[in-house]
Design goal:
The protein is α+β, with helices and mostly antiparallel strands. Helices cover 50% and strands 19% of the residues. The strands form four sheets. Strands 12, 14, 15, 16, 17 and 18 form a six-stranded mixed sheet that branches. A five-stranded antiparallel sheet has the order 2-1-5-4-3. The protein is rod-shaped, with a radius of gyration of 63 Å.
Length: 609
């Protein structure tokens, strides 16, 4: 209870007020009592003087007689007091209330002794004669300049005490009300002072629990008001700082979560303090189990552990290229020391260079392919020119044959350059696709009819199977036909005599969850966005494509079987892929070597969802 400011302010106040009031009550009581006693004494002195003047001349002072008793009783009745007349030797000569014969010598009563010395004496004491507290006043009686005795007047203190007690009660009740009022006031002041502090405490507690929106209204203009205003300023600034920190943190988290590179931070103790999803993925672990574990247990690969240890030891940035297993990703690992955070504090960045390396391979292959593709016709042209120069010119029929062959080679070169240029234009987005609703028949029909004579010459059965209710596709008709032409042309090229080629189509829907209809389609669902699609399939019973070549046939210049691909450039499928991708569609192939291949083209329809 005394821990509260309210009580700590109120209790001392109340104690102080109590002590002051108690002191005042005691002082006032004494003052009243003393005043009453003084009054009474003055009254008794006056009365004693009156009696003295009246009885001074009485001859009875010379010896004991009844006269003084009668006088004493007379004045006692008059004054309503006890009157005692005492001789100079202390013998009681007259007494109003008692039998004087029973009374002892009064010379040594304090009031008598004082009267003897000071001509007036008074005393308050318990009277054994009457049995209660009395006030006595004595004065000497003089007759002819000789002291003949004393007049003593006494009054019981009962009345005085009663009066004093009444007054004291009045003072006490006033004091009690004052104390209660003051205590109440003290409590109010304490409450008034403590309330804003309590409110501040509540607000701070709510802030500590994370509620940063709380504010205090300054109600006073005093120090507490100033404190409240300062507190609000502080809380505003704190809220601003925390909001900024949270924003920065969420931005940083978003960056870390979405970046393709893996990031790992180890603390001074060598344990993982931060790991982003990419790093967890590349290291084949998950973030939760990696956090707080030693780096070596998380990284596992000895080359990455070595790199990290080198970085910690030497305090310098370290690089390492790491191939994670035969089929695993190809990583560039960079370890950077975080000097201030401790001896083993380090940041490890894992860059996934698999795609870059694959592109590098594709680029290298492309260059070697293009050199090869150019070298063959050029070498043949050179040979033909040499042969002509060496004398074949003299033989006109042979010269004609050679010129025809040269013409064919030049045509092949021109075709290759044209296709290369077209591929480059499509890849760089220079070829605009004029997309509109086109019936599947318009996409498939013209190419098939154009190639039908060629198929016939090769003794191949070419059939088309289109269901009647296919929705139109969203396509650039000319480009879409180019794709189908390439697929059917390839099928004709790579199917031996007597085989068959069938172009078919069906509609399917990819729903939001990735489900696909009809379910018979063997598609990689995750690669196809939801919506209504049309699938065109070109199936042949030809030579097929070896499994290891299948993933690469859409690359530029890639030919699965160079011997059989004849005059092909290896660019047709690469162009087809880019055209289909330009439509937002997909192209892929399935094949069994020796049995045949199926090329699929999925094109979007107008109904996207
Ligand atoms: P090309 O001009 O050589 O036909 P493409 O890019 O059209 O170039 O084809 C690339 C390679 O894919 C071909 O050389 C061939 O090996 C393979 N290929 C394409 N279509 C078929 C098919 N229907 N049957 C077997 N192999 C095919």
């Amino acid at each position: 209870m005394f821990r509260s400011i309210r009580w700590r302010i109120a209790i001392p106040y109340v104690i102080l007020i109590l002590a002051a009031t108690a002191g005042l009550v005691i002082y006032l009581s004494d003052l009243v009592r003393d005043a009453h006693v003084d009054d009474l004494e003055a009254k008794l002195v006056a009365e004693a003087r009156l009696i003295r003047d009246a009885v001074a001349t009485s001859p009875a002072w010379e010896g004991p007689g009844d006269d003084l008793d009668a006088l004493a009783r007379h004045y006692a009745d008059l004054l309503d007091a006890r009157v005692t007349l005492i001789g100079a030797d202390g013998t009681v000569l007259g007494e109003s209330d008692r039998d004087r014969m029973q009374m002892d010598n009064h010379l040594y009563r304090p009031e008598v002794q004082q009267a003897l010395a000071e001509r007036q004496g008074s005393s308050i004491r318990f009277s054994r004669t009457v049995g209660y507290d009395m006030m006595y006043v004595a004065i000497p009686v003089m007759a002819e300049k000789r002291m003949v005795g004393f007049v003593r007047v006494a009054l019981p203190l009962r009345q005085l005490k009663a009066n004093v007690a009444r007054l004291r009660r009045a003072i006490l009740s006033v004091a009690l009300f004052t104390v209660l009022g003051a205590a109440l006031l003290a409590l109010l002041i304490a409450e008034y002072t403590a309330r804003p502090v309590r409110r501040l405490t509540e607000v701070v507690q709510r802030m500590a629990k994370g509620d940063l929106s709380v504010r205090l209204l300054p109600v006073t203009r005093d120090e507490v008001g100033a404190l409240t205003r300062s507190f609000n300023q502080m809380s505003d600034r704190l809220r601003g700082t925390i909001t900024k920190l949270v924003e920065e943190r969420s931005r940083l988290t978003a960056v870390l979560d979405n970046m393709a590179d893996g990031v790992l931070i180890t603390g001074g103790d060598g344990h993982v303090h931060l790991i982003n999803p990419a790093a967890a993925r590349l290291l084949g672990t998950d973030e939760q189990s990696a956090l707080g574990r030693p780096f070596a247990l998380v990284a596992r690969d000895h080359r990455i552990i070595d790199l990290w240890q080198r970085c910690c030891r030497q305090g310098e940035e370290q690089f390492e290229s790491v191939e994670m297993g035969r089929q695993g990703p190809f990583l560039q690992a960079i370890a950077t020391p975080l000097q201030d955070a401790g001896p083993q504090a380090c940041m490890v960045i894992l860059q996934n260079l698999t795609r870059v390396r694959r592109l590098e391979t594709v680029r290298r292959d492309f260059i070697s392919n293009i050199s090869h593709e150019l070298r063959t016709p050029l070498a043949s042209l050179k040979a033909l020119v040499d042969t002509l120069r060496d004398g074949a010119l003299e033989d006109p029929p042979a010269a004609h044959r050679f010129l025809d062959r040269m013409d064919t080679e030049v045509d092949a070169l021109t075709q290759m350059v044209r296709e290369l240029l077209e591929l480059a234009r499509i890849e760089s987005g220079q070829v605009p696709f004029r997309l509109k609703a086109v019936s599947v028949e318009d996409v498939v029909g013209p190419p098939v009819e154009r190639l039908r004579p060629q198929a016939k010459r090769a003794d191949l059965q070419l059939s088309v199977d289109l269901p009647p209710d296919l929705p139109p596709v969203l396509a650039d008709a000319e480009r879409a036909q180019q794709v189908i032409t390439n697929l059917v042309h390839n099928a004709v090229k790579f199917t031996p005599q007597g085989g068959s080629i069938r172009v078919s189509s069906s509609a399917f829907r990819v729903s939001e969850g990735g489900a696909i209809h009809p379910e018979t389609l063997n598609l990689k669902l995750e690669t196809i966005p939801p919506g209504q699609w049309v699938l065109i399939a070109v199936r042949d019973t030809g030579v097929g494509i070896p499994a290891e070549d299948l993933p690469r046939i859409f690359e530029r210049f890639y030919k699965a079987d160079r011997a059989r691909s004849g005059g092909g450039t290896g660019l047709g499928l690469a162009i087809a892929k880019h055209i289909v991708q330009g439509h937002g569609g997909r192209i892929w192939a399935e094949s069994v070597e020796g049995k045949g291949s199926t090329f699929y083209v999925a094109l979007p329809t107008l109904t996207r969802r």
